[in-house]
Amino acid sequence: MPKIPNKDGHRPFLISGPCGVESREQILQAASEVSQLPSIQYLRGGIWKPRTRPDSFEGVGEIGLEWMAEAREQTGLRIITEVARASHVEACLKHEFDALWLGARTTVNPFSVQEIADALRGVNVPVFIKNPMVPDLALWLGAVERIMKAGIEQIAVIHRGFSHYGDSIYRYKPMWEIPIAFRTRMPEIPMLCDPSHIAGEVSFIPALSQKAMDLGMEGLMIEVHPNPKQALSDKSQQFTLKDINALLSNLEIRNNSSADEIFVSELVALRSRIDKVDEEIIHLLGKRMRIAEELGEYKKSHGVNILQLERWKEILATRGLLADKVGLTEEFISKYLDQIHKESIRHQTKVMNSRGRNEE
Length: 360
Ligand code: PEP
Ligand code: MN
Fold this sequence. Notes:
Blueprint: E1 13-17, H1 24-34, E2 40-44, H2 63-75, E3 78-82, H3 86-94, E4 99-102, H4 104-107, H5 110-120, E5 127-130, H6 137-149, E6 155-159, H7 177-185, E7 191-193, H8 195-199, H9 205-214, E8 219-223, H10 241-250, H11 261-301, H12 309-325, H13 330-352
Parallel strand pairs: 1-2, 1-8, 2-3, 3-4, 4-5, 5-6, 6-7, 7-8
This protein binds phosphoenolpyruvate and manganese (II) ion.
């Protein structure tokens, strides 16, 4: 059995178990339940729980390591937990943990990551690295590099969503573009998705898991608790055994590619249509910016400001309606228009004011 997900291996590579280890009975029960899952690779359980607010359940501490080791003995499952400090690493190594993970609140802090990397020097244990709380790709890559430099060879990452301010149906926004960007930078590193923490609520977990599989991720880390209602942390996002069984049996696992000749030739044809549309879009964007420059000249010769708020509002409203008609989301069109407007202002600034050349 592979210790980290294998690019050509069986998917999903599954890590499952409760958010936190709460008692000996609870973790033994959870272990016996998840050991029945066909694709289970590791039993998870948080021993030291990093909580956003004080006075919540902060984990049982070192005694929980013994209970997890006992769960391993009883079920044959490998065990994994979260480490946030060098002392956690040492305690886990003492109990011969099969793997460790760095949580989102640790990856965000290079001092902590380095402290853990130093504690791991000369040790041969697989390490899973969650994305940082903030949507910052460089921090995630940096954490992986620090652990690699410590000599750890078996590394995988876990996408668990990002902190945000304001409304979202999710506890943490998935921002799928960030794990995709990670993959383009470090394609050799296997990636799991943790839909439990993204979702914050069980009903979203199946669709998030399916999406992770459709984006080619190798595995899933899913929280399962013998009695979620009684859980001491993350109650509303923990599955029962029945829930996770249903999820796994409904999950569609597709391949990264197909050698079928008809498929390949159809794919090439469709892609060449996309290429053509992209070319047209880029030409049109160039044309739009040249008109913006003319506009800049014209406003300049009449002593008129670049930003015309009424016009900008009218653009947002009319393009928004049109976008809706052709099936584009409001989020997409508003991001697109912001970028177009920013670029248009840049072009107008260039012709209006030569000193504005390097500004954002
Ligand atoms: C967890 O896995 O229970 C956890 C605390 O995760 P994260 O670091 O993603 O918040
Ligand atoms: Mn949790």
